[in-house]
From TrEMBL:
Entries under InterPro entries matching the protein: HTH_Sigma70_ECF-like, RNA_pol_sigma70_ECF-like, RNA_pol_sigma_r3/r4-like, WH-like_DNA-bd_sf
Domain of life of the native organism: Bacteria
Matching Pfam families: Sigma70_ECF
The protein's name: ECF-type sigma factor
Segments forming domain RNA polymerase sigma-70 ECF-like HTH: 5-179
Signal peptide: none
Annotated NCBIfam families: Sig-70_X6
């Protein structure tokens, strides 16, 4: 609970100062954000040449550069972190694929998306399916982003989104179903 008060206090005290809230939030929540980055990179596999510290720093730089960033609450902060990590990792994979010109994409295990650890999902395919899901339902896409790219549990997502755990779980079930269909459709094309 002190984390919520800290975030609220930081956002309220730095409302008029550009970038100060980002600095303070990253300082206060660095261990939590680094834990998210570490979990995300573990999903990516050992072929990644990125450390959790580097991923956190890249997200910090990206958020710091955004002059129009208006952090509203902790949900908004964690959603931005998950989104920032998603887009940075997708860009990194695209860059690596261009350099290698091999057409081989980094693959992560989608044990968070499917009921089995067996499903392998190409990160770029997942990114495209998630972009399509965003055009269908932004709330469902946000749940996927928090779960998959943020690594949050259902309890944590319920707390971040200020809804019940059962509501988050229902949204996750629906999002997972739609996402798996979108991924299957992408494979068939």
């Amino acid at each position: 609970m002190s984390e919520i008060k800290n975030i609220t206090k930081i956002l309220n005290s730095h409302a008029l100062q550009k970038g100060a809230a980002v600095d303070c939030l990253f300082t206060a929540l660095y261990p939590e954000v680094k834990k998210i980055a570490n979990a995300q990179l573990r999903k990516m596999g050992q072929q990644q040449d990125m450390s959790p510290t580097m991923l956190v720093n890249e997200c910090f730089i990206k958020l710091k550069k955004n002059d129009e960033l208006n952090l509203q609450n902790r949900k908004h902060f964690y959603s931005l972190i998950a989104r920032c990590m998603r887009f940075y990792l997708v860009d990194l994979i695209r860059q690596q694929n261009t350099l290698k010109n091999s057409g081989v994409h980094t693959v992560l295990t989608a044990d968070g998306v499917a009921d089995t650890d067996q499903l392998q999902v190409d990160v770029l395919t997942l990114h495209q399916a998630l972009a399509h899901l965003e055009s269908i339902d932004t709330d469902l896409a946000s749940v996927v982003e928090l779960k998959f790219f943020g690594g949050f549990s259902f309890e944590e997502m319920a707390d971040i989104r200020s809804v019940s755990k059962s509501q988050v779980y229902q949204q996750w079930q629906m999002a997972r179903s739609v996402l798996l269909n979108l991924i299957e459709d992408a494979k068939d094309q």
